[in-house]
Amino acid sequence: MTWLRALKDTTRSGLTLERRRLEPLVALRGAAGLALVVGTALALFGPVVAVSSAFGAFQAAIATLQRSWRPRPVLALISGGSLAISTFVGYLTGFQLALFVALLFLWTFAAGLAWAIGPTTGIIAASNVAIMLVTVTLPTSVATAAGHAAVIAMGGIVQAALIVLFPLRRWGAQRDALADALAAEADYARRLRHDPTASFDPGPLMVARSAAAVTPRQARRRPAELHGTRAVAERIRPVLASLADPAVGASAEGPERDRVREVLAAAASLLDAAARAVRRGVPVRMPPGAMDALKTPDTVTVLSGPARRAALRLVALLDDVLEEAEGDGTTEVPIRDRPSLLRLLPGALRSVRRELRRGSPVLRHAIRVATVVCAGYVLGAVLSLGHGYWVPMTSVMVMRPDFSQTYSRSVARFGGTLIGVGLATAIVQTTHPGVVISCALAVLCAFGIYLVMRTGYVAANICTSAYVVFLLGMGGEDAGQTVPDRVLLTLLGGLLAMSAYAIYPAWETPRLRNRLAEWLVADSRYAAAVVDHYANPVDRPGQDLRQALLTARDARIAWQDALARAIHEPVRSRGLTRAAAESADHALSQFGRSAMLMEAHLPERGAVPVPVAAALADALRQDGEQAARAVKERRSLNWDRVRAELAVWDDDHPVLRSGTTLLAEALDELTEALDEGVRR
């Protein structure tokens, strides 16, 4: 993609508004906490301290709205406490430009590295740096700086207390994640009616799995319908696929195919009903006739062989899902432990340490954002425009580890600033509001931010810009003088951020082959674990099979995320065209799908072993490792061991025979796609 096309696409992305479900009560609670803190500080200490407290309460509420499975009060406390420390330490060094710039570099570098822990941590850390650039200008002495830090921390405490006292949609995020997973499977069942080999995005299942991790205290309070539903839902997907696929399920045409379509339609209706019940925390409303359509005797009389077993298995699993969604299920699943913050700290430090290597995109982001913020701060101090901190503040807020987000947010930041500042300035200059009215308008803008922040960065930034203008007015600043300067400084900050990424990039495109190789290895190990089970049947699959499946899902999502980012980058991938990447994506998806179909019919304990399966599993592991190296080195893939084992296959197991045939076809497609990419 050319630079012109990349800029055009990222501009359009930055100005796009998404349709998301709004949560007005959550926004109202955050705005109420902000009003309580600012109003109290205004009455007791005056407008300057009130402005400082406004930033603390504002940022604490923003932190609670981030995508995280941590309890919301914890996020508010972390945000308020870290911002208070940043403000106090920043003020202690603010009297000397060189010393403050050195501290700012270290602080911003650490915030950049925080992306190694996760996006929520990275966003909170970047926001703290941005707000610290403003709050350090408010105190006039060490004592007042300590006071400002205290009221900032108090803002986090108040927001946390309101969440505890006025909880809204308890376990709402976990309910949404599980409901999304069930709804995704319902959609999958409908698509299988028309396309028996349709693909399935495991993203919702992975999100639901992350949401299911709880602390011991949470485990005692978790609603019954969130206990085992996900574990049962995980087992439905391969059964749906094996029922619909003509290779291992019902025949492609005829009465069997018609009956399978009816079963899939009924399963989709029941899964949707379970999803609605889980999301709303209400009893399941059974769709009329759906369960009768599943349990009719026609299922046994019309279907035969693997298709009949899959249909009966699906009926049993759907019964379990409905029972669990009602909260009456007895499915026992191990509790996925979510470590406390203290227990999480060593793992977080290890994640950061792994990124301290040459070529790490997180390290490059940390260096890039720290350099830009310091350069922007010096530039803002040199310019005689006043309020020079808007340059580095804009840069740190828009910069992300990837190209597309940095450029799209820069455009959205400037567009939102222009609109928000223009509207707020018009209000201030025409009505001349006092301190109390300015405070009320700022709280109203904060409510707007909390309400629309998930619909797009440009919408939230319009409200954010107006919020800051009203705060400046509340603190005694002349909006008519500061607003034009702020617009220009915001533009400079955005241009600095965009220029820095062009000069010192961390492109995803050159790493696509590595991502593809990781997915190939993961899929090979997953397929090998499945085939191995046929050679040694046991009661239930071991942990190695489950872990191989999860690793394969993680690798697939990492590849798809990388491919989505690379599409918008103005660079080319050597030896991997876009068409080749799409073909390889399809081939590896079918590779994993063939293993999933075989997993759906794993033999029970006591079944007749398939000795040749063990040799095929070993061949898959060895050839998978070598093929991954070939992908990285741009060589042709070699599957000689796998082909040799398939050539001497002497077992007539129907599922294995069909599954391995699909697997071989997927490997041929993958080899052809990558060979074509190398030739081009």
TrEMBL record:
Sequence ranges assigned to domain Integral membrane bound transporter in this UniProt record: 377-498
Keywords: Cell membrane, Membrane, Transmembrane, Transmembrane helix
Transmembrane segments: 31-62, 123-143, 149-168, 366-390, 410-428, 435-452, 458-475, 487-507
Topology within the bilayer: Multi-pass membrane protein
Localization: Cell membrane
Family assignment from sequence similarity: Belongs to the YccS/YhfK family.
Name listed for the protein in its UniProt record: FUSC family protein
Species of origin: Streptomyces albipurpureus
